[in-house]
Specification:
Elements (H helix, E strand, L loop, with lengths): L3 E3 L5 E3 L2 E4 L2 E4 L2 H4 E8 L4 E2 L6 E2 L3 E9 L6 E8 H10 L3
Antiparallel strand pairs: 1-2, 3-4, 5-8, 6-7, 8-9
């Protein structure tokens, strides 16, 4: 069963739980995502879903902004175009 949590707007959402050492933790990257881009990669990057290296191809880049005391931090995640489409169709992005 997929657990749900309440987001900032008060509605319930499905979480993308990840198992790490037998414990589950949810990822709040989607709540902080501010930009999505479809870019051509000149330098090698690694897909955050499959772990395969992507180079000289088009890929999706999602950027999240984390705010707190001090300067905001930006986190970038790269997705293979096929994996991104697959996750979009499953409703996980």
């Amino acid at each position: 069963m997929m657990p749900f949590y309440r987001d900032r707007t008060g509605s319930y959402r499905k979480t993308l739980f990840k198992e790490v050492d037998g414990m589950y933790a949810f990822d709040t990257f989607d709540d902080h995502c501010i930009k999505k881009e479809f870019k051509f990669l000149f330098f090698p990057k690694r897909c955050c879903v499959t772990g395969k290296k992507m180079w000289l191809t088009k890929a999706y880049k999602r950027t999240a902004m984390w705010t707190g005391p001090g300067e905001p931090l930006y986190e970038h995640r790269w997705y293979d175009k096929d994996q991104y489409l697959f996750l979009m169709l499953k409703g996980e992005l």
